[in-house]
Protein 1
Amino acid sequence: MDYSKMLNPRIAELKPSGIRRFFDIANEMDHVISLSIGEPDFTTPWHVRQEGIESLRRGKTWYSPNRGFAELRSQISNYFARRFDVEYDPDTEIVVTVGGSEAIDLCIRSLVAEGDEVLIPQPSFVCYEPMTIMAGGVPVIIRTRSENEFRLTAEELEAAITPKTKLLILPFPNNPTGAVMRREHLEAIAGVIEKHDIMVLSDEIYSELTYGKERHVSFASIKGMKERTVVVNGFSKAYAMTGWRLGYALGPEPVITQMTKLHQYAIMSAPTTSQYAAIEALKHGDSDIERMREEYDMRRRLIVDGFCRMGLQCFEPEGAFYVFPSIKASGLTSEDFCEKLIYAQKVAIVPGTAFGECGEGFARVSYSYSLNHIKEALRRIEIFLGEL
Amino acid sequence: MNKLLEVLEKNSDFSVTELAAMTGMAETEVREKINEYKEMGVIRGTKTLIDWDKLSDAGVRAIIELKVTPKPETGFDDIANIVMSYDNVESVYLAASNSYDLIALVRGSTIQEIAEFVARRLSTLDSVIGTATNFVLTTYKKGGEVFYNGEEQTEQRSMIL
């Protein structure tokens, strides 16, 4: 059978994630020290796991309401008000999803019509571009620059906007660069947004992991922006709950209503067990966040200092758990550098190009690993650089 | 919390430079603090964490519970001092429990050796009125490190961006 005639060309033509081949090499080798994984190394705090277990023990194994349990939405609403100073109505402005990824997909599909342009700053997480294409939209890549510490600037944004622009993706704190947008940077972006009729998808999944003096500022808290912003967040990064697959979106009622409709048909409802655990996380998890954040911060300092010492140029990342050093001085492409490093010293890091072509010349190094693990990886990278 | 001590407790191998980077302290400050902690007796030494279960000839360990009659003046200190003076006693703790007062972690080459040590050296002590010997079968966690969790060691996190 000729499947090429059967498959949807729009899907078939999507490029598979370029990083697969590299991960296959790493998986086949023994004794690889990896700094490549994009999820917390912590396990979910025990009291949160217990609530999940308890809900199972009591036989709470049914669907939840489509939007998610009312208590969870109300806790999310409280959390956003107390942490980021933005008020959302739990009944109409919040939908609980299967991870932040589903929320991103719902948001893009609810807003983007055939031919609409979606502005995507890169380097950034890999899903925005394919999801835009799947929705029939046209991805417009905005290249962020290392000299701006990979922040999106008002000028770059202004230059990319056309009459067809529908949506701006704002992925900060950023994977893979670790860049954060402080209040003044967000205000500059808001200044451009309010002159044009466009929406913003602010992916704030790393909002609890910022290390500068100023903690995360939600784009929705910037004056005038709440009405045109959908905020995506979730439990994966803040509470080390990746496997529970639980995220959420907050936004204006007309958008959340459409997103909920899509969610209802495609997913039905987010996992019930995870929702019970998440209620506990929001109620009693603040100190867990702080404990993990402090540990990440120590690792971040160790790794940035280590790279600087060995002459690997990198700006100080203030968010997420990644550093994004420049490997240009080696004269190698990102992929060659990472491939040589894994064969020579068995250290796995991710080529910057996995996050957009403009990631060329950089590599993503995750510090979601123990201090001992990082110390050993740094030692090996230093040997590798010395032998280049 | 004290970040410097927390890091050192996990791994004493970090250089002063690395410790300074991690804690945001100056290198001289790190050096001074470490010396200060040593002088104060807060830092008591550095040792290697060994999983003896990995060796076939590693011997045995037992947790000995001791029921003790405290002395009017010195309480449990005298008897604890005698127990801890034996070289094969690794740790001694005073516990708050109905069934026993002191706990001693004891090492020996065979079960018989430990049994004999308890019978001859500990049970016979003046104020010891009872002992219970618990042989250690598996070390699950030691010194903050998980040694064995009942699972095959496999890569737990998948390669996902």
Note: Chain B touches chain A at residues 3, 7, 10-11, 13-14, 17-18, 21-24, 157, 159-161 (CB under 8 Å).
Protein 2
Amino acid sequence: MSKAVQFFGSRWGIISVGAFIGIFAPLLQKWGNPANMGVCVACFDRDIAGALGLHRAAVVQYMRPEIIGFVLGALIAAYAFKEFRARAGSAPIVRFVLGAFAMIGGLVFLGCPWRAALRLAGGDGNAIFGLLGLIGGIWVGTLFLKGGYNLGRSQKTHTSVGWLLPLIMLGFLVLMLIFPQVQGQEKSGVLFYSVKGPGSMHAPLIVSLVVGLLIGFLAQRSRFCTMGAIRDFVLFKQIHLLLGFITLVVVAFIVNLILGQFNPGFEKQPVAHTMSLWNFGGMVLAGLAFALAGGCPGRQLFLAGEGDGDAAVFVLGMIVGAGFAHNFGLASSPDGVGPYGIPAVIIGLLTCLFIGFTMRKEVA
Amino acid sequence: MSKIIDARGLSCPQPVLLALNEIKKINKGEIVILVDTDTSKENVSRAATTQGWDVKSIESEGIGYRLTISKG
């Protein structure tokens, strides 16, 4: 057991996990997930919001088992290695708002850091602007961190607090089994499904779930975090997490080449638009929100799985944010940004600045 | 008497930031850092080592750990 602990904490540990994701994300695309979207935490949370009817964008409705797997895999890993610690109480409302705006920023770009990496690995040049925006947003976040920004301490709490998000995910899985997709139908019981569009494209449930569980397990062990990768490099010149993120991109690129999924260019890329400024701007917002909240959207799921009730609130903020993004016309489409996407990014940035500037109290 | 930094309950990257600030401040000596997650324990240990400090001991304390780092 202690050897396993040492391995996952090592440089080779994080590289292996990046490689694992880099192999399986393109494979999930081959097995049915949308192009350059083998794993996208923002898109998949958004699809879950659609499956629940929190927004009614007909093309993005599916209860993504990968997300369920991420949380439950992390839960299993945390228990297996005696790391499950229920904790909560560190500015939950702030985390909710950051989650919502991170999602809105992500949907203006059309992806989270994970998908930005996969889009790049699939040849989508627009991802470069998204990644630059991500770096920019995180860089602003590090300035706040250096200036004393923090969300305050969490407290140890009842074990059941840490179990709530995993139980919600388990409940989502049970709903999928009770109300499975019916070919050609938009609704099955209480769940919404997409008949066309990205929401209709998915790998078989069991495949998505197993890959999700494995990634959740490995990422909890190795602390894989796409935001932390960039933040730690900017802040401490540490490359530990960055090695995992870079490995993901390189391995996914190679696997895409092998599978014939590499299509370089800017125009007509799958589930992407070419408005560079807003690909950049959306991800500045997302990157800043992730940095202020202490983790990328995947990491928030893994933290929620190991008992962090505040990360769970961030996740719920993302799902609700997806509802706003589609109901209010903030999310982009392959045609470009939504009618209110640009003001939403500006409001989101102002909100993040307000949070960053005002939450600088010294921790006792 | 070594300085004690209480980083329990703080999100990433606060425990590392607090530890590094103290490392820069005193340059050498001994620092005790209290953390409450394994992630923070690993991150602080890694950051201290890269600064040329030794992780002298890691003891379980309450729900977390007590890390002692030092540089001669």
Note: The beta strands of chain B are 3-6, 29-35, 54-61, 64-71.
